[in-house]
Amino acid sequence: MSNIRSKLKRGDTVEVITGREKGARGEVLSIDPKKSRLIIQGVALRKKHQRKIQSGGRTMSPGIIEFEASIHISNVLIVCPNCDEASRIGIRRENGERVRVCKKCQEVIED
Ligand SMILES: [Zn+2]
User: What is the model's pTM?
Assistant: First the structure.
């Protein structure tokens, strides 16, 4: 199992720690483990001009669409639901199961 899979998960809130979007927070919508990149809701919005396209049998009308660009995993930290700090994730064993813990407050981060 890749590193990214065992740590960040869909639905986690993360904070961008570097670059143009530094400080932005949002929910992880999807993870690409092969590329180690995430899509975060409302973060790294890009606009593109859309011509008429066919998509899954639907025709989308032309115009400007907004979409979230992916961000590399190394540019974000999880926002701990317990202490509300952007933190690194540690792994601890509890009752034989691996759980994620916040390295700042040491509390378990629920999935
Ligand atoms: Zn914490």
Answer: 0.81
What is the 57 CA–ligand 1 centroid distance (Å)?
Answer: 45
Q: Sketch out the chain's domains with CATH numbers.
A: 3-81 (2.30.30.30)
Give the Å distance between the CA of 13 and the centre of ligand 1: 12
Burial of 78 (0-12, 13-18, 19+ CB in 10 A): buried
Q: What separation in Å is there between the alpha carbon of 87 and the centre of ligand 1?
A: 7
What pLDDT, on a 0 to 100 scale, did the predictor assign at position 46? 92
40: phi then psi, degrees, rounded to nearest 5: -115, 130
Question: Which range is least confidently modeled, 44-58, 69-83, 92-106?
Answer: 44-58
